[in-house]
Amino acid sequence: MVRLNVFRWAPGEAERIRAYEVEAVADTTVLDALVAVQREQDPTLALRYACRVGMCGSCAMVVNGRERWACRTRLASLGPGPVSVRPLYHFPLLRDLVVDMTPFVERHAAVGAALAPAAQAEPYVVIPSASAERAEIDDAIECIGCGMCLSACTMVAHDRRFPGPAALNRAFTLQRDRRDAAHGARWAMLLGDDALPRCHGQGNCTDVCPMGLSPTRSIIRLRQMAVRRMVGLAAPQAGRGQ
Ligand code: SF4
Description:
CATH class of the largest domain: Mainly Alpha
CATH architecture of the largest domain: Orthogonal Bundle
Order of helices and strands: EEHEEEEEHHHHHHHH
Number of helices: 9
CATH topology of the largest domain: Fumarate Reductase Iron-sulfur Protein, Chain B, domain 2
Distance between the termini: 45 Å
Structural class: alpha+beta
Helix content: 25-40%
Strand content: 5-15%
Strand order of the largest sheet: 2-1-5-3-4
Largest sheet: 5 strands, mixed
Bound molecules: iron/sulfur cluster
CATH superfamily of the largest domain: Alpha-helical ferredoxin
Shape: elongated
């Protein structure tokens, strides 16, 4: 048996921790345990999940003090003792383990996170997978929008206008995309006081990203591009070394 200490809250109620005991075998995940609680002990427990196989990121939550996807976190990997489960930080709470992801979308919108095709842009998907241009952004394009990096980022808590790791990571991929026509407008935002200068490089985002992305590296590359742009040099060469 494993004990889960689960954060509970609903509008009009007081925040509290509720303990549940669940049966676990070697492969039981945190999501398995929470679903068992919901089905067999407490149907009022609210949580969000969809794919259950580590693809969608919707089951992101804070387990034993660290952002993790519940469906890929085995109870056995957490060591002995009770397992604490709480919702992501820095998002409005809807109920129990479910947060409102609106700030995630808003922060992406703030950096112009959609491709703005240039008038003579080449057709979609023309960048060869083996090219240096693709290699430069390869580590940054697999974001699944789970929000774990925002939860782990201390600057997101401090500055509500800071776009946060995921949006800056996305902005990096677009600033390196020759088909995009919004580079100038995006630079105006990125170089403002609340964007690139705000990151302190703690790397919490990179530590918790379940996809192995490094928003920290994307931010560093954006800064390198910004400096070269300011002194009239071309963008840095594509590479993975920094
Ligand atoms: S960068 Fe990583 S942690 Fe952040 S939203 Fe994307 S997949 Fe999740």
